[in-house]
Amino acid sequence: MKWSDRINLFLLSCLLVFVSGAETAAGSEITVSAALRLKAPFEDLGRSFEGKHPGTKVLFNFGASGMLQRQIEGGAPADIFASASPKEMDLLEPGGFLIKGTRSNFAGNTIVLIVPSQPRLRIRSFDDLRKKEIRRIAIGNPASVPAGKYAEEVLKSSGTWETVKDKIVLCEHVRQVVDYTARNEVDAGMVFQTDASDSKDVEIIAEAPEQSHKPVLYVIAAIKGSKQEALAKEFISLLLSDEGRKILKKYGFRNIK
Prior knowledge:
The chain has 10 helices and 10 strands. The protein is an alpha/beta fold. It has a 5-stranded mixed sheet with strand order 2-1-3-10-4, sandwiched between helices. A 5-stranded mixed sheet has the order 7-6-8-5-9, with helices on both faces. Helix 2 runs antiparallel to helix 10 (242-250) and helix 3 (65-73) packs parallel to helix 4. It is elongated, with a radius of gyration of 23 Å. The relative contact order is 0.19. The model is unreliable at 3-27 (pLDDT under 50).
């Protein structure tokens, strides 16, 4: 073999090693689509996971659960999906979008009534929403925001819905509900307790009775077709571990059995 051929072969070998290494690095990423409210605890969990799996990168896609569900149905890349209610998983599962045996409930929450920290009106309970002076009540859009669906259930359970439905301001996510309430753009809002606890500009007035709505459950599953199925399952295992439960509790989520 000529010297020049040996050099070319050596260079080709180096190139193949580089390409192989690049593919390995690219393959050590997992994408987690998760409800917006899970941002803080999941970022903590992601850092822990990366520390336990050197060379692995956890990428997050946060948004309204309904929107993320539709993205997955449309073929958007995701290895894991964490929703703020069982509804989204119930829609995905029959279509074969979830890897069997990976679906798990991992946390709970509750619905609360919030008002601005410096309110214009006196509101002390859900019943007060019936008052004529209450003109605007913000909730998440029940069609796409789990907190909004639960809020609707609470209002219907108490017989308040028909009285207040024309006052309802639909928001695209819970952060918007909190922001509108904090700025006195609405008289009150209904969100998950964890959403309200993050803001110093709103006050929690009342907690919805447990029987007034379906249990608030956060659900996670690995997505079928994931190229990182093993890593996805390990991420879910970490979330369900004692470490994961402690992280969730730190941010106000309720542990469930």
